[in-house]
UniProtKB/TrEMBL annotation:
This is Uncharacterized protein. It comes from Methylocystis hirsuta. One of its GO terms (molecular function) is DNA binding. Residues 73-111 form the Resolvase HTH domain. Coiled coil: none annotated. InterPro entries: Homeodomain-like_sf, Resolv_N, Resolvase-like_N_sf, Resolvase_HTH_dom.
């Protein structure tokens, strides 16, 4: 397995190597000009790396499941027969999206995404 940490850019490290310092205007804690700011940024970077590394097995497991054809997420709101019926009614102009949404007790945006 390739260690993807080698591909992650370290923007603040590059700024520091260039001889400049970083100070966030929106967050007083993100400031490489002070020891406290450098400590805080180092701590936050460590937490971010931990989160990435600990979620990698979950992402790999989900990718394997998708490769096997496992459906991920919520079940569809309509059966294939209901979808075909709704699309047929829309195509014929027999009903509006709002009518079909009321018929199937769904939101109009669900029918809109279907169309």
């Amino acid at each position: 397995m390739i260690d993807d940490r080698a591909f992650r850019p370290n923007t603040l490290g590059a700024i520091g190597k260039a001889g400049a310092r970083f100070r966030s205007l929106g967050d007083a804690g993100a400031d490489t000009t002070t020891a406290h700011g450098r400590l805080l940024l180092t701590f936050l970077g460590g937490i971010a790396e931990f989160e990435r590394d600990s979620s990698a097995p979950s992402r790999a497991k989900a990718a394997r499941a998708k490769a096997r054809g496992v459906h991920m997420g919520r079940p569809p709101a309509l059966t294939p027969h209901q979808r075909a019926e709704a699309l047929r009614d829309l195509a014929k102009g027999n009903a509006t999206q709002a009518d079909i949404a009321r018929q199937f007790k769904l939101s109009r945006s669900t029918i809109s995404r279907l169309a």
